[in-house]
Amino acid sequence: MESRDAIGAAAGLHVQAVRLLGRDPRGHPVTEMLDDSPLNPPVRQLDSSLWQPKDYDDTTLGLIPMRQSLYMSRNLSTIKLGMALGSRP
Predict the structure, then answer these.
(1) Cβ atoms of residues 43 and 53 within 8 Å
(2) pTM exceeds cut of 0.70
(3) Which residues contact 56 (CB under 8 A, 6 or more apart)?
(4) Contacts of 85 (CB under 8 A, 6+ apart)
(5) What is the pLDDT of residue 13?
C-alpha cells in the first residue's frame, strides 16, 4: 500500500469518528444542515502546501441535511462539521 493510500485509510477512520460525534445528542441532530461547499481558504498542511479536499465525484451540493451527508459519505460537509466541533473531551 502506498503511503497516500495509508493516509486515505486513516483519514477515512477519522471521518467516521467525526460523523459519530456529529450525531451527538447535545446539539447536532441528523436534521442539522451542513455546508457541502469547497473550503475557503484551503487548508495549509504542515509542509506549507495547500490542500483543497473534494468529494469523489468532484461535485458540491450546498446546504444538505447531516443525514444526507452521512448517507452519501460527503467529505466537504464532514470536514466542516469536524472543524465546527473542534477538539473537545
Answers:
(1) yes
(2) no
(3) 75
(4) 18, 21, 22, 28
(5) 52
* Whether the Cβ atoms of residue 63 and residue 74 lie closer than 8 Å to each other: no
The pLDDT of residue 9 is 47
| pLDDT on residue 85 | 74
Euclidean distance between CA atoms 43 and 49, whole angstroms:
8
Across the strands, what pairs with 69?
A: none
Question: What is the three-state SS of the chain?
Answer: CCHHHHHHHHHHHHHHHHHHHHCCCCCCCCCCEEEECCCCCCEECCCCCEECCCCCCCCCCEEEEHHHHHHHCCHHHHHHHHHHHCCCC
Q: For residues 24 and 40, what is the distance between their CA atoms, to the nearest angstrom?
A: 26
Which of the residues in the chain have pLDDT under 50? Answer: 1-10
Find all residues with CB under 8 Å of 29, minimum gap 6, and list them: 23, 66
* All three cell numbers of 18: 467525526
Give the residue carrying C-alpha cell 459519505.
Answer: 73
